Amino acid sequence: MKVVVTGGAGFIGSHIVKILLDKGHEVRVIDNLSRGFQNLVDPRADFKNEDLKNQKEVTDLLKGYESIIHLGNYIVVPESTKDPITYTENNVVGTVKLLEAMKDAGVKKIIFSSSATVYGEPKNLPLKEDDPIGLQTSQYGASKVAMEAFIGAYHSLYNFDTIILRYFNPYGPNELHEPETHAIPNFIKAVLKGEPLPLYWEGEQIRDFIYVEDLAEAHVDVLNIPGFEVFNVGTGVGAKVKDVVNTIFKIVGYEVPIKDLGKRPGDTTATYASSEKLKREVGWTPKNDLEAGLKKTIQFFKEKYAKNNLI
Fold first, then answer.
1. Which range among 79-83, 153-157, 178-182, 289-293 shows the weakest confidence by mean pLDDT?
2. Which helix (DSSP H) or strand (DSSP E) does residue 111 occupy?
3. How many Å apart are CA 180 and CA 203, to the nearest integer?
C-alpha cells in the first residue's frame, strides 16, 4: 500500500515508518520538522518538509497515495494551556486542512493518532472504546476530541475509511521532545546523569505504559479495516509510576534521590486500557512487558548520551 505518514519524523511516527517499509509498503513522510528530526526518518521513505497548513502543497503530495496515518499534532499538555490558539491552529485546523487535502486528492482512508485523554477522569477501569468522552482538563485533550469529531464528520460526509487509535502512555527509543514532559524519558535521563528523579504524586498514579514499537505495529495492523472504528491501544495492565521508577533502578543497578514535585493539577489518578477489541479485530497484542521495554529504552538513552559525552 502507498501510505503517507504525517509527523513521521517524530517519536512514534519514525517507528511506524520503519515498520511500514519493513513490510513492503511505499511510504511518504510529511513533517515540518518543528518537533521532529529528519535523521529519525528511515532513508527508504520519501521525505517531504511541508506544513499541513499549506493545503494546496499537501494536496499535491497526497495524490496517488491510498492511506494517511496522521500524527502531525502538538502533544505537550502544559504548553497547550499556555498557548491554546497555537494548539488549536496546529492540531484542529491543521487536521481539517489535511482532511480537505485528502478529499481533493482522492485519498479516503485515515488512521488517526488520538489519546486516552479524551476519556477524561475514568469512571470505570479498564477503559473501553464505548466509554463516554469525558470533560477535558487541557486544551490538548480538547484538541484531540475536536480532531476525532472532524475526522468522524468526513467519514459521514465523504465515506472516508476512518480508524481512531487512542493511545495510552507510549515510551521507548526516539523520544527526543524538547522540553520533555513525559515521565519515563525524564526518569531515565535523571538516573543516567545521577540527578534527582522528578516525581509527582509520590508515584502513586496508575498508568498503562506501552512500548512504542508495539504501538507502532497497531497502525500497520489496522490498515485494511474499512468503515469507522475506534480502538484503544494499551497493554491492559496498570502500573504504579513508583513501580516504574523501581524497575528502572533495578535495571541500571543503582538508585538516585527522588525529587518530590507534589500534586499536579489535571492528572487522573488511574487509567489503563482494555485493548480486547483491537486483539479481536486484527490479533494485535503487545510483545514487550514493562521491564523488557524499559531495558531497550534505557539502552537507547545510554548510547545517545555516550555519543554526546553527557554521561
1. 178-182
2. strand 109-115
3. 18
Q: Which one of 3.40.50.720, 2.50.20.10, 3.30.70.60, 2.60.40.1510 gives the CATH number of domain 2-170+211-233?
A: 3.40.50.720
Give the global pTM: 0.94
Mean pLDDT over each residue of the chain, to the nearest integer? 93
Residue 140 catalytic?
Answer: yes
Contact 42, 14 (CB under 8 A): yes
Angle ∠(186,187,189) on CA atoms, nearest 5: 65
Give the whole-angstrom CA distance, residue 207 versus residue 185: 15
Task: Give, in order, the Cα–Cα distances in Å from 10 to each of 38, 209, 310.
Answer: 8, 18, 22
Per-residue cell: 25 = 509498503
Residue 161 has pLDDT above 80, yes or no: yes
The CATH number, out of the four listed (3.30.1330.10, 3.90.25.10, 3.30.420.140, 3.40.50.11270), of the domain defined by the range 172-207+237-307: 3.90.25.10
- Looking at residue 264, its pLDDT comes to 77
Catalytic residue, candidates 74, 87, 140, 154: 140
Concatenated DSSP letters of 209-249 = EEEHHHHHHHHHHTTT--SEEEEEES-S--EEHHHHHHHHH
Cα–Cα–Cα angle for 161, 151, 112, rounded to 5 degrees? 75
210 forms beta bridges with 170
Amino acid at 3: V
